[in-house]
Design goal:
InterPro entries: Sig_transdc_resp-reg_C-effctor, TF_LuxR_autoind-bd_dom, TF_LuxR_autoind-bd_dom_sf, Tscrpt_reg_LuxR_C, WH-like_DNA-bd_sf
Number of helices: 14
Pfam family, one: GerE
Organism: Pseudomonas petrae
Distance between the termini: 55 Å
Protein name: LuxR family transcriptional regulator
Keywords: DNA-binding, Transcription, Transcription regulation
Strand content: 5-15%
Number of strands: 5
């Protein structure tokens, strides 16, 4: 049986009417949580459970490098990226700022040297070895749509022939329209997440279990699960890990005062 690196049409149901309808709905003016939930549904139907979407102006050197992104990449990788200031050597970011053609990670990794090679090696530890990054442009803003494939070698031609990758390119104009609509909406108030929800998310982000958080915050495990479920819903996520990644990517742990209190 032929091994595929990107999802097949059977895996992602990329040709179904429901998938096409969901892609088109990304262009609608939904609220932030609903829109991110829809994006997650579309990406999962295409077969991409790990993805990253960004669009915006170039950030100043002192800014949070993950501000404004939407991602399901591993939380540990996001923390390492931020902590090690990998934005300074990120070959994906550099490529997407200057080019319009897609970047296949395997090819870029093989030809990398010096610090760029180190970047790819660090990503591999988190299962981000094979994938694709598509440059995004809207007016004066730039960004990327990145998806991770299964960690198996394949050729660039095989990736392009994947039905899921083909649908990914079809998704881009609807994605850009939806992101434009999101940026035109009034900013959501920072107290969308309650202080207790932020505390629970913070402790989850440092690896604490529900029981451990309940001991730290002196409340029941059921209460902790309730707060984490609410936070997950508000962040447009499908599980606790994704909610932690979303909160971290938006810089909430750094700027919202979600710090240990005991």
């Amino acid at each position: 049986m032929e091994k595929q690196n990107a999802p097949t049409s059977d895996q992602g149901q990329v040709g179904s009417n429901s998938s096409i309808t969901a892609i088109m709905r990304l262009a609608t003016d939904a609220n932030r949580s609903d829109w991110e939930r829809l994006l997650n549904k579309v990406m999962r139907e295409l077969g991409f459970t790990r993805y990253l979407v960004s669009l915006g102006p170039n950030l100043p050197a002192e800014a949070d490098p993950l501000a404004g992104i939407i991602t399901t990449f591993p939380q540990q990788w996001l923390e390492e990226y931020r902590g090690d200031r990998l934005i300074e050597i990120d070959p994906i970011l550099r490529h997407c700022r200057r080019d319009l053609v897609p970047l296949f990670w395997e090819k870029a990794r093989r030809r990398a040297r010096g610090r760029s090679r180190q970047f790819w090696q660090q990503r591999e530890r988190y299962g981000l070895r094979s994938g694709l990054s598509v440059p995004l442009r809207y007016e004066s803003q730039s960004g990327t749509l990145s998806v991770a494939f299964e960690d198996s070698p394949t050729t660039e031609h095989e990736n392009f022939s994947s039905p899921a990758v083909f649908r990914l390119f079809m998704l881009i104009p609807y994605l850009l329209t939806g992101m434009r609509n999101q940026r035109q909406r009034p900013a959501q108030p920072r107290h969308d997440l309650t202080p207790r929800e932020m505390e629970c998310l913070y402790w989850a982000s440092v690896g604490k279990t529900t029981w451990e958080i309940s001991q730290i915050l002196t409340c029941s495990e059921r209460t902790i699960d309730f707060h984490l479920l609410n936070a997950t819903r508000k962040l447009g996520s499908v599980n606790r890990q994704q909610a932690v990644s979303a909160a971290s990517a938006r810089g909430l742990f750094l700027t919202a005062g979600a710090l240990p209190i005991k």
